[in-house]
Amino acid sequence: MSTLAHTMMTAARSADSGLAGPGELDRYPYAEGPVGDRVGAPSWESADPELGRVGRRAAGSRGRGLHGQLVQQLGQMIVSGDLGADRPLVPEEIGQRFEVSRTVVRESLRVLEAKGLVSARPNVGTRVRPVSDWNLLDPDIIEWRAFGPQRDDQRRELSELRWTIEPLAARLAAGHGREDVQQRLADMVEIMGHALAQGDALTFSRADAEFHSLLIQVAGNRMLEHLSGIVSAALQVSGGPVTGCDRPNEASLAHHARIVDALAAADGAAAEAAMRQLLMVHLEVERVVPAPREH
Length: 295
What we know:
Blueprint: H1 3-10, H2 65-80, E1 88-89, H3 91-98, H4 102-114, E2 118-121, E3 125-128, H5 139-146, H6 151-173, H7 179-198, H8 201-217, H9 222-226, H10 228-236, H11 250-264, H12 268-279
Antiparallel strand pairs: 1-3, 2-3
C-alpha cells in the first residue's frame, strides 16, 4: 500500500482546543451559597448512569480532555431532549454531577453557547435554547441528532442536503482543471480500492470523506466550501437512509472513478451525472430523494 494510504490510516484529526479567552469564564458564574434548593434545576437522576464521571468516557468526543468530554455529554443530553428547552443549567450542579472543575464546566458551556444550544444572561443564568436557535449545520450537532431520538429526521435531512450540494459541486469542479486536486482525488479512489479489497472499512471511509471534501473545495464556490463539514458529518453517520458512500462496494468505487474521469475531461454534465448515480447506488435512497426529472 502507498505511503498516502498508510497516512490515511494513521493520521489523527486535529481539533480546536476550545479554550476560553480572557474574561470569558465569568460568563457562567458559580453561586455563592448552597444550590440544593434551586427551583427548576434539571434532575440529573434520569441521565445515563455511565455519564456519572466524565473521565470515564472519552470516546466520541471531538475536544480533548475533560472539557471535550463534557461538551459531548451535555450536548447529547440537550439534543436528545433529556435537558429540554428553557431548562436552567447551574454550573455548580453540573460540576458536582460530572465531577469536574469550575473551569471545565465554564469552558464547556461556552462551547455549547457558540453552537446555539444554551444561552447565558446576567440575572437569568444559563438555559437550554429551543431547537430553532441551534446551529443545525454544526458537525457535532449533526452527530448528536443522528444518534438520538431525531435520528431518522437527521439522516433524511442530510440525504436531501447532499443531493442539493454534491451534484452541483461536481459540475462546478469540472470547470476548474486543477491537476493537483484531480490527482489527489484519483489517489483517494486508489486508496478506496485497496481498502475495499482488504475489507478495511475504516480506511475506505476516511478516503471517501477526503474525496468528497476535496471535490467541494475545488468547486470554486466559497459558500459551498463552507458546507463541506456537512458532507463529512453525513459520511460518518451510519444507518437510516443511506447512499453509495455509506457502504463500501464495487459500484460505489466505480462511480467515484467516473467522477474523477469526468473532471479530467472537464465534462461538468458527466461529473454531475456520476455523482447522482453514486448517491443512488442503494435503491432505498429513491424513497428519500427522488432523482430530478430531465428537461
